[in-house]
Amino acid sequence: SPAPSDAVSRFQEYLRIDTAQPAPDYAAAVAFLRDQAAAAGLEARTLEPAAGKPLLVLRWLGRRPSLPSILLNSHTDVVPSEPKKWEHAPFSAALDEASGRIYARGSQDMKCVGMQYLEAIRRLRDAGFVPDRNIYITFVPDEEIGGHEGVELFVTSKEFKEMNVGLVLDEGLASPGEEYRVFYAERSPWWLIIKAKGAPGHGAKLYDGSAMENLMKSVEAIRRFRTSQFDLVKSGEKSEGDVVSVNFAYLKAGTPTPTGFVMNLQPSEAEIGIDIRMPPNVHIEALERRLAEEWAPSSRNLTFEFKQKGTVFDNFGKPAMTLADSSNPWWPVFEEAVKRAGGKLSKPEIFPASTDARYFRQIGIPAFGFSPMANTPILLHDHNEFLSKDEYLKGIEIYKSIIKALATHKGDEVDEESRAEL
Ligand SMILES: CSCC[C@H](NC=O)C(=O)O
Ligand SMILES: [Zn+2]
Ligand SMILES: [Zn+2]
């Protein structure tokens, strides 16, 4: 088996490819990954569901390729960064010798996972293991901007259907404690814009019906709702993924001047942007009514539109969730494999943000979100994102155990179950 330092330098090499949105270097990432795939003895195929957005599919052929396969998914793009606010340049993948931390954009989200899949497979193959099922490893574009030209298209393709996927693994989150987190569902993004119109006038005059007044009433109502949800989390009654989160993304109003804004003019238009995340089990009609009646009533000269309104349902009309208990035959296999490798799992949760896993769950394919990073602060999308080299290497061993267990046909239970679901 390869020296751990080789695995670390391969990880660093991937991290050094600048795949930041909005202009990710997908060509460089795919070239690098194809080399890695060849070294791991995997078949590679580059699809392009949307032009210029390569989606790499690797395959480790199983002994019984007609069994439902396992799909190990990761996205190749990363979010932008503000390099000046980082201690190490975001694409340097600097290894701090004292702490063992590797600093890079994507070190947690989620180039670690993509490379860990490949390293685990290399090691399993070197040890002579042969999977029963086909194992697919996908490296997908554009997750960070919604996956519309990535996995959302991919799951509708003939190539995807032919893969006969029974279970998907996708990303999770780091955890500061020693337990790994695992996610069985996620919240849906609703990106809402509310626009207000109102009577303009002198900045000194008190009057009703200005655009700002019309909109600020909404802000107050939205904030009351936000507080009620946040309180449930603060009191410990609910966890982050179980409530509706509402956060203001921008406020736009006023009449600009070269040095600022006009101060004595009440504007006739104003606008806010809100990031809402909807858990799969929430009462959607209630929130929609609240929106129409309290947050953006036309009686107050308000209109609203969605920039993004993800569904919380799967194509069969049920909340898009993967069962994480013994009624799902994949679950105990996954859970035991983590344990066997010395990992501890905390109670399965709803992912608070959004990942490509939602597109798989929507078409009825079970998916777990999992990134083996314990003892690690949650730094995805943050400055100074890092992962320690030891956690990274531990994660490879965890995936070795998981992939081995999932790849092995243990009887017909799992396969009958997934066939019935498809
Ligand atoms: C509208 S999909 C956006 C996807 C993005 N994913 C990870 O952060 C997110 O904001 O959750
Ligand atoms: Zn991610
Ligand atoms: Zn992300």
TrEMBL record:
Pfam (any one): Peptidase_M20
CDD domains: M20_AcylaseI_like
InterPro entries to which the protein is assigned, alphabetical: Aminoacylase-1_M20A (IPR052083), ArgE/DapE_CS (IPR001261), Bact_exopeptidase_dim_dom (IPR036264), N-acyl_aa_amidohydrolase (IPR010159), Peptidase_M20 (IPR002933)
This enzyme's EC code(s): 3.5.1.14
Residues at which Zn(2+) 1 binds: H75, D109, E171
Residues at the active site: D77, E143
Keyword tags: Cytoplasm, Hydrolase, Metal-binding, Signal, Zinc
Annotated compartments: Cytoplasm
GO biological processes: amino acid metabolic process
Sites where the protein binds Zn(2+) 2: D109, E144, H381
Location, primary (coarse class): cytoplasm
GO molecular function terms listed in the Swiss-Prot or TrEMBL record: aminoacylase activity; metal ion binding
Taxonomy, superkingdom: Eukaryota
GO CC terms in record: cytoplasm
Cofactor(s) named in the record: Zn(2+)
Class of the enzyme per the UniProt entry, highest EC level: hydrolase
Cofactor binding comment, as recorded: Binds 2 Zn(2+) ions per subunit.
Matches recorded under NCBIfam families: Ac-peptdase-euk
Protein's recorded name: N-acyl-aliphatic-L-amino acid amidohydrolase
